[in-house]
Amino acid sequence: MTTTAPTDDQRAGESQGRLILKRFSRNGIAMVSLALLLLLFVFSVSAIGLGPIPGWWKHDYVTPLPPAEGGRPTLSLIPEWLGGAGIMLGEHPFGQNRIGVDYFAQTMRGVQNSFLVIVLLAGVATVLGTVVGAIAGYYRGWVDAVLMRITDVFIVIPAIVIGAVVGRMTGGLGVQWLAITLGLVAWMGIARLVRAEFLSLREREFVEAARVAGASDMRIIFKHILPNAVGVVIVAASLIAAAAILLETGLSFLGYGIRAPESSLGLLVSQNQSAFATRPWLFWFPAAFIVIPALLINFVGDGLRDAFDPRQRRFSRRRTKEMPQAEALPAVPAEQKS
Q1: Count of alpha carbons within 13 Å of 203, Cβ hemisphere only?
Q2: ABC transmembrane type-1 domain: from which residue to which, for each copy (predicted)?
């Protein structure tokens, strides 16, 4: 049995991928953020289940239950030897809402919906923005002018306004349709970034060589130029993912996004904002799960940006302070050094 040796292009591709992975793995903050992000998703799915997958938590997010301990949280993180009640979840870790529904189950369902919105919205926006930006940057001329003017029209309209209109039409159809429709109007930023990258890459020698070899425009765009712009696409997608959770939360808070009986973190905050003074846990638990994933995604995005762009150097305060001192020191002649 004979094996085919990898070509030079394959070796180069593997080498480049390994270098990017190595740079990313050296970024401790990004790696920890990615691990926590995956852990949060797995925890939310394992807790209350997803579709046919059952969860280990005994309550669901829609059934009212008799009040326990006045609806207060039963979660305890202080060990008994420190004077606490011990580390335990209790009957209702995050408490209960006004009608007795378990708030832990509602919050975990909101986390699941947030991840679903992140994946679908960012995926649709990334694909559409990449295609529009690639075609505009490659063909230039009137094609570029038309596509970029359409992009400018969408950009000048505030995202929350577009989202409110989209949410009013699709919010009651389910989380999937809301996320997909929002992705269709959130592609403008990545389209401009990809266009700028294509304007630079289309003038490279390997593109001219592909044209001389008779490659079609679509093959040049998607087989030759786009792989070299994948860094810009991935970093831009991470930024869209971070904005997706905030956009969905804001729409649900205003009543234009996910609607009851489905659960959303923004909807939970909106429903319980009047109880902030008397039952603050109804506000703080969903608010924390809004902020944490958004921060983690931003940290992962920063790590991806550094990994794909090795020309960026990390800021060093000590090096910055030492540079003026080194420049201010007079040069010492060779005979004085001896």
Answers
A1: 5
A2: 111-301
Burial class (CB in 10 A: 0-12, 13-18, 19+), 52: exposed
Cis status, amide bond into 261, omega within 30 of 0: yes
> How far apart (Å, rounded) are the C-alpha atoms in residues 80 and 295?
33
The residue extents of the domains of the chain are 34-49+101-311
**Cβ distance 281 to 95 under 8 Å?**
yes
Q: What is the pLDDT of residues 291-330, one digit of tens each?
A: 999 999 999 988 888 888 755 544 444 444 554 444 444 5
* Nearest residue to 131 via CA among 194, 47, 203, 41: 194
Q: Give the pair of three-digit tokens for residue 222.
A: 């998607």
Contact assessment for residue 106 and residue 170, using Cβ atoms and an 8 Å cutoff: no
pLDDT band at 208 (very low <50, low <70, confident <90, very high): confident
| 205 CB neighbour count, 10 Å cutoff | 7
Which pair of tokens denotes residue 26?
């050296």
The CATH code of the domain at 34-49+101-311 is 1.10.3720.10
Give the DSSP letter of residue 98.
T
Distance CA(277)–CA(115), nearest Å, equals 29
> What is the spatial distance between Cα 285 and Cα 104, in angstroms, rounded to a whole number?
9
